[in-house]
Design goal:
By secondary structure, the protein is an alpha+beta fold. It has 5 helices and 4 strands; from the N terminus they run αααααββββ.
Length: 141
């Protein structure tokens, strides 16, 4: 999880090449979806989105590969994948503008899930309730 912050962009040439191919497919009308494979639980998707931009996608195109495109692919785009009235209220609130700098996509400050707002990093519920998660085993030492 530290490598992303320390390695120069050239170390990700394999990701950039794959993302450039994904961009070429997108330009030909193929629905491209981002996907992480368990690397650093949760962070892998942010790294994948960043790679899509490095491969030539605009930040909006890259964000769509992780939001509306998968929802369309699975047939859930009437309920998920974008912020619209009547859709499920699951979203991430980011500290920054990912359209200006895709690298801020992992700077979460809140998570909205099922209409409930949770604050990072504790995931304590705010505004919508008072739920406080129990400490994880390594936090009890």
């Amino acid at each position: 999880s530290v490598r992303r912050l320390k390695a120069p962009d050239k170390d990700y040439h394999h990701l950039v090449a794959a993302a450039a191919n994904a961009k070429a497919l997108l330009e030909r009308g193929v629905l491209v979806n981002a996907g992480a494979h368990g690397q650093r639980e949760g962070l892998g998707m942010h790294w994948e989105i960043r790679a899509m931009v490095m491969g030539g996608m605009s930040p909006m195109e890259a964000l769509a590969t992780a939001t509306i495109n998968p929802a369309r692919y699975m047939g859930f785009d009437k309920d998920l994948g974008s912020i619209e009235p009547g859709k499920l209220a699951d979203l991430l609130v980011i500290d920054g503008d990912p359209l200006a700098d895709i690298g801020v996509s992992d700077r979460l400050v809140h998570v909205l899930q099922n209409g409930r707002l949770y604050a990072e990093p504790t995931m304590a519920e705010t505004v919508t309730g008072t739920h406080r998660p129990a400490p994880l085993y390594w936090q009890q030492r």
